[in-house]
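Target chain:
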Amino acid sequence: MILLDGKQTASDIKDEIAVKVKELKAAGKKAPHLAAVIVGDNGASITYVNAKVKACEKVGFDSTLIKLPETITEEELLSKIEELNNDDNIDGFIVQLPLPKHIDELKVTLAISPLKDVDGFHPESLGRMVLDLPGFLPATPYGIVQLLDRYNIETSGKDCVVIGRSHIVGSPMSILMARNNKVGNCTVTLTHSRTQNLADITRRADIIIVALGKPEFLTGDMVKDGAVVVDVGITRVADETKKSGFRLLGDVDFASVSPKCSHITPVPGGVGPMTIASLMMNTLQAIEMK
């Protein structure tokens, strides 16, 4: 069993990006500039955004963190997004989810310029992905593709099962794994809450990608020997034995699944760091597209 080390792979990608940024600066060009908008005081969101800012520092990007109060109106947030759309100094920006309940996340997503949509959530970005045209890929699926690629995992002709059909991970992941690309050409089954006999489906899979947000959902009896398992989930579970008061669990029961796998991602240290690395790749692409 080989661990798909997202932490090390993401570090390698960021080192490669840092070299390209130095080349841009040496040529007299500006460094890519990523802005992150965060609304309210969600602890997990703040931690995640801070990690993105640190990643920008590591690769040599300029970064701007915009903190807005939870009481901000939808109109005020949309006005800030329009301001960022029109700011030539900002190459790409993200609006960290989730947003407060009084703000329509879809309306916010649609307001972001497709040219600066480095999270890859805008319908134009998703449409370009479906048509296999150049554009920004959703950061988490993009990170998974990079991880599989760099570990030389053969996907062509393989049976891939994606568990979870979210617009952010599951649905785009199913499209990427089916595309006619180096990492792709799978026969993909996209499963969800209405899927019947799920274990029968997963036991046939060569590659399983789990993105549900349900701790330890995938168990050893649902996986065949030699499968590749990618665990996208990360949930905080109370644990008084830990200094933090909690531990992190993925969607995969690692103890029972890992002995059967050829490759598996850990939680933490698997998909999470790759998502941030992909965001950096998209931001570099944004300046190259100019």
